[in-house]
Amino acid sequence: MTVKNHTTILDLVYDVILKRRQSSPENSYVAFLLDGGTDRVLKKICEESAEVIIAAKNESKTEQIHEIADLWFHMLILMGLNGITLKDIYSELESRFGQSGFDEKAKR
Question: Average pLDDT of 2-16?
Answer without folding.
Answer: 81
